[in-house]
Amino acid sequence: xxxxxxDRLLFIGDSVTDGDRNKEDGKDxxxxxxxxxxxxxxxxxxxxxxxxxNRGVSGDRLIDLKDRWEEDCLAINPDIVTVLIGINDxxxxxxxxxxxxxxxxxxxxxxYRFLLKSLHQQTDAxxxxxxxxxxxxxxxxxxxxxxxxxxxxxxRKMAREYxxxxxxxxxxxxxxxxxxxxxxxxxEDGIHPTLAGHAVIAQAWLDTVIKGKA
Length: 214
Prior knowledge:
A 5-stranded parallel β-sheet has the order 2-1-3-4-5, with helices on both faces. The protein contains 10 helices and 5 strands, in the order E-H-H-E-H-H-E-H-H-E-H-E-H-H-H. It is globular and about 50 Å long. With 214 residues, it is of the alpha/beta class.
């Protein structure tokens, strides 16, 4: 994927993207992987005068992202859009202690398709989809896989169907955790990345989008 002069890059999703950003400052990149990616790109491409924007919102499910898609994505008219969403859909079911029904998965696919179809119809944006993820620490997070894995499969299907870039974060972060300890990358909840976890996400994005340039 080429990054062109004056490109506007949008990172959008839930708390993993939000990074405790200041919502009153539209230019604040937060303290998560979007900030790391932005710093790297601005160092690598000073001549391109890139604009990077963070529109992550902590707690968002896919339906919440859909509800603000027009204002926080389409109205910005981005050139490159990175989407990371889905773990809060799984979290909601875990909190209710109920399995995901097929109609929920169908709705998840329909809502995800809405995002990509509207981007395709209303913009010329290049799209990067990032897999949501969960690491098996605490141990009860293992049971979350029954809900999350089908959602990841939907996202992979969307990436194939809409020919987007795909960053396979779930397998990558779990592999890192196997080698070095799961809490090293997602702390005490298996969801929210530590600084090391955000660095892994940022590097995976860079490896996918600019093919590992350093």
